[in-house]
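Practice set, problem 2.
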Amino acid sequence: MEAVAIVTVLALVQYCYFGVQVGSVRGKKGIKAPAQSGDEEFERMNRVHLNTLEQLIVMLPAMWMFAHFINPLWAAGAGVIFIIGRFIYRSAYLKDPGSRTIGFVMSYLPGIVMLIWVLIKALLSYI
């Protein structure tokens, strides 16, 4: 379970890093809070940050349940794929939002696969 804890911390640090980048671009572009628009670079970085949060809400509980019911090392591996996918997503989205598909899929699928697997395992155990 230590590997899952490490990956959890890394995913949260990544999220915090993206948040710092939002603040940095906000300051660089002179966008005063609470404004959420006004510069395309800021809006893209903000969307990366918010979309990462949306994905974390699924991935983190899925990873911990998967670690508990299935296999902690596989869960941690899926979490690493998520983190790499988020960096790819960020890079692509900042260049051209239309090119974000690979990063999105890499960060979306691990959580969904783990959720489905845990659900099947739980249902089979319940029957």
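Problem 2, part (b): a different protein.
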Amino acid sequence: MQCIFWETYDKTFRQFQSRMNKATLQQDEIFKKFMSLVRIHCRKEREVAFYAEKLFITPRYLSFIVRQVTRDKSAKDMINRHLILEIKVLLQTSRLSVQEIALKLNFPDQSYMGRYFKRYTGKSPTEYRAALGE
């Protein structure tokens, strides 16, 4: 599971590493720290303000930096992408029920997680898991 997260992080970071200048170095360092925090806390924390506070910057500045580094993704998008990856990994590699996964990832209930997952993947968690077995 960690390999998937590290691979995603590594690809994202490498993609933008080539365009370094003095200002960009600082932004890239903040982005790197942000992605590390997301990897650690995305199961419980989904708000940009939480990560901005940890980095001692404003949520608006964090969003600006993430958009600069990724060129099109917001900080919230990056948090959501990692959370969706986390859900996919749990659906693929565990025998936990969808309800247990929802509880583990701090969703209010299974239904909310199902709607959240479907919004980003186009499939419900149950449909996604069933498609893996095909």
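Answer key, part (b): The chain has a mean pLDDT of 88. Residues 16 and 71 are 9 Å apart (CA to CA).
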